[in-house]
Structures are given as C-alpha cells and as structure tokens.
Specification:
Number of helices: 14
Distance between the termini: 15 Å
Structural class: mainly alpha
CATH class of the largest domain: Mainly Alpha
CATH topology of the largest domain: Vanadium-containing Chloroperoxidase, domain 2
Largest sheet: 2 strands, parallel
Number of strands: 4
Order of helices and strands: EHHHEHHHHHHHHHEEHH
Oligomer: single chain
Length: 466
C-alpha cells in the first residue's frame, strides 16, 4: 500500500467557498418548496445512489470530449484520459472508503469519517476537486483554451451543486458536510501524491531508418532528428499507481524480422488490414465496432453493468478504482514497451518489405492501412492494453462465471454482447489487425500486459479489512 507524500493527519480540510454557496442554495430551494409546495428541484439528474457512476460520466466527458463538442471537454487522448481517471477514482474510492471502512485505503494517512457521513457527497466532492485540479494543470492549446477550460469548470460547478442538493435531500445537511470533508481530504491527498509524477513531460518517440525502426506514419525517412511531435508520448514517464514500475510488466518484444512468425503476421495484416482488403461480414463488424475510444466505451459499459447488478456506492467506488488504476498502469506499461522497442507499424513495414531481410515478406510501396495510424510505435497495442486491463479487472471483481456484458458503440445504436469479460479482448486483438495498424503480436502482448497489471492491482491494492 502506497503512502502519501504529505501527511493529512486528523485535521479537517477547511470548508471552501463553494460549500457555503451550495448549502445556501439548498436551503433556499427547501424554503421555496415549503412556500409553494411540491418537490424540491435538483440542479442535475444525478442520484445519491449512483454518485460514483454519475461522476465517472462527468469525468469522462470533462477529460475526453472534444473542446468543440456540445458538452465540451479537454480533448485528451485515451492514454491521458486513463491516467487522469485513475487519479479521480483513486480519490473517490478513498473518500467513500473513509466512511464505509470495508477496505484498505489507496493512500494511507487519511482521516476517518463518521459512518453517518454522506457517501454521495464524498464521491462528488472528491471527483470535483480532482477534476478541477487536473484541468488547471492541463496545458492550454489552440483548441483547449482558457475559455473552454472555464466553461468545463462552470459545468462541473453546476453538477456538483446538483449532487450536493440531491445528497442533502437524501442524507441531511450534517451528513453531507461530513461527507464533503471526506471528499476534500481524499482529493487533497491525491493531488499532492500526483504532484511531479511525470505528466506533461518532454519525452518524444525517436525516429529511426533501419529495418524495424518506427518512423512517422507513411514516411520512409525521418523528417527531423527527433521524429514527429507526439504530444502525449510522456505517458511513458508517468509514475505508476500500483505496479512497482512501468517496466515491471513490459512486453517481451516484437517478432524477429527474419523469422517465420514475423512473416506470418506481416502477411496477415497485409491481406486483411489494407484500405481495400476483402474482409468477411463479421470481420468488418469487429473492425467497425472497435474503432471508437475504448476508455469512454468501457467506462460507459461498466456504468450500465454496475446499475444492472445493483452495486452500492462503496462497491461502485471500489470497482471503478480497480478498473481505472489497472487501466492507467497498463497504458503506462504499454508506452514503456513502445519506447523500448520503437517498432515500425505495418504501413512502414509493408512499404519497405523488400528490404527487411525476410524472403517471405514481399513489399508493396503503395499499401495503405484501413484506418489512419497514430503517431507512435506499433508495439504494444494501447487499445489492447486498455482492453486487457479493464476486462481482467472486471473478471477479478465480479468473478469468472458466465454473464451478459454489453458494449454499445458511441456513434450509433450498434452493440456487442459477451458472455465473459475476457471474450472482449479476442475481438479487439482481431480488430486492430483488420484495421491495419498493428501486427498481431503487438495486440496479443498488449492484452497480456493489461491482464498482468490488473492481477497485480487486484492482489496488492484495495484489499478487504481483515
């Protein structure tokens, strides 16, 4: 169990100005209800019974949505989303667990909270505080401007007010005050713990021109000594949340270029992953479904699953801590593998296939992958690191029995239902081959990283008390 870099002790974090404003607004709403009759309105549709899930949704929107979306967000890339969701849900877990007390904290040294405190207020407050801190720390860009950031924070202000109003109606003002104290303390500890943790660093992937070396997308030469500017390559240097280091579960590496195994993978993606490849109806369905952001889809899918299974707030908090801590550490490890091996993607490999030293890999200088390539190396697959970690964490949380778990595509009404969580990574491994952006071993070893990390998190964090 990790220890915070700052001592919280048993001193309560002072009430902030928002708490006074929110509680004052709740009082006014109650007075208005008493005068005119009827039910007290709430500022948001959030329910105290699903506060963790509601704030997971708010967090995903704030971090992942494009700045130009109807509900604007910071537009973070999936690995960056994963890291920040772990920061949010680690704090939410500690806040709720300080009240429930059933499991060991993620960060030690937090003050206990009364058992009567509002878990909903604790979860909402912790999530809000961490999200605002993250948004303030996020560098501004041409699209993520100060105005967009302020608009996101203003929306979070309104959502928090709604959550606190709903919690007050359900639990009472005294319980909400105690719960908010727990949330503030957990958030402050997490923010301090993650200060200087390697986020937003200067690392960029290096470009090389030898056979097997990664280089920018369709280029056959390096355009600059340092390669292209990948704005989130710094994930490689982020301090892990639970695993001992980003190299602990690093992959064993890609196939040797001259091997038969490499030629088999080369010819598979060449045949199935081109923009004009003839894929079966099922192959195309898998291709189309898993082209969306996995972090958003998996977090949304598990919200639905948690509701269907009637998880309590404490159970929601532990589930999402387990999911997101595993996801973040898996993607940090994945980026360590990318930096270690800096292996070329299929589009470069196939265009330069005649010069790789393998007689069984015929090159095609005009070959193009079915979807655009991200600006970082092939090995290992970030999509599958995420999938392996989320699905293994879920299996360890809920058990390995047959279930009915449904994922829904973000852009349309399509969905895929699975009888075991582990069945999802079978599809995502295939999907990235069909899309033409990964060799199969990058997908398989990515999923293995995710599984290994999730098992470690399950064994070494968030354990039951006695």
């Amino acid at each position: 169990m990790r220890t915070t870099r700052t001592t919280i002790g048993k001193t309560k974090v002072p009430l902030r100005a928002w708490r006074a404003r929110v509680l004052f607004g709740v009082v006014l709403a109650m007075l208005a209800t008493a005068l005119v009759g009827g039910s007290a309105p709430t500022a948001a549709a959030d329910s105290p019974a699903t506060a963790v899930l509601d704030w997971n949704k708010h967090a995903v929107e704030a971090l992942a949505n494009a700045p130009t979306a109807g509900t604007p967000g910071a537009g973070m890339a999936p690995p960056v989303q994963a890291v920040h969701l772990a920061i949010v849900h680690g704090a939410v877990y500690d806040a709720v667990n300080a009240i429930d007390g059933g499991h060991q904290p993620y960060l030690e040294g937090l003050p206990p909270a009364p058992a009567s405190a509002s878990q909903a207020a604790a979860a909402a407050t912790a999530a809000y505080d961490v999200l605002v801190a993250v948004l303030i720390q996020t560098p501004l860009t041409a699209t993520f401007t100060a105005a967009i950031r302020d608009a996101i924070v203003a929306r979070l202000d309104a959502l928090l007010a709604g959550s606190i109003a709903a919690a007050t109606a359900a639990d009472g003002a005294a319980a909400v005050s105690d719960g908010a104290d727990a949330g503030e303390a957990a958030a402050a500890a997490m923010i301090a713990e993650r200060a200087g943790d390697g986020r937003w660093g200067a690392f960029r992937f290096a470009c090389g021109e030898d056979p097997g070396d990664w280089r920018p997308v369709t280029s056959t030469v390096c355009t600059t000594p340092s390669g292209p500017s990948d704005p989130f390559a710094w994930v490689v240097d982020v301090d892990p949340f639970v695993v001992q280091s980003g190299a602990q579960f690093v992959s064993r590496g890609p196939r040797e270029l001259t091997s038969g195994a490499y030629a088999k993978e080369y010819n598979e993606v060449k045949a199935l992953g081109a923009v004009d490849s003839a894929r079966s109806a099922e192959q195309q369905a898998v291709f189309d479904f898993f082209v969306v952001n996995p972090i958003e889809m998996y977090n949304r899918g598990f919200r639905d699953y948690a509701i269907a299974n009637g998880l309590t707030l404490a159970e929601q908090a532990r589930l999402y801590a387990q999911l997101t801590l595993s996801g973040a550490d898996a993607l940090i490890t994945c980026w360590q593998s990318k930096a270690r091996y800096s292996f070329w993607r299929p589009i470069t490999a196939i265009r330069l296939g005649d010069g790789d030293g393998n007689p069984n890999t015929d090159g095609d200088p005009n070959w193009t992958s079915a979807i655009a390539n991200p600006p970082y190396p092939d090995h290992t697959s970030g999509y599958n690191c995420a999938t392996g970690s989320y699905m293994q964490a879920a299996e360890l949380y809920f058990g390995t029995e047959q279930t009915s778990f449904t994922l829904q595509h973000a852009a349309d009404a399509s969905s895929r239902t699975y009888q075991h969580f582990r069945d999802v990574w079978d599809d995502t491994i295939d999907a990235r081959v069909y899309q033409g952006i990964h060799f199969r071993s990058a997908d398989e070893q990515g999923a293995q990283i995710g599984r290994d990390v999730a098992r470690w998190v399950n064994k070494h964090a968030l354990q039951p008390v006695n």
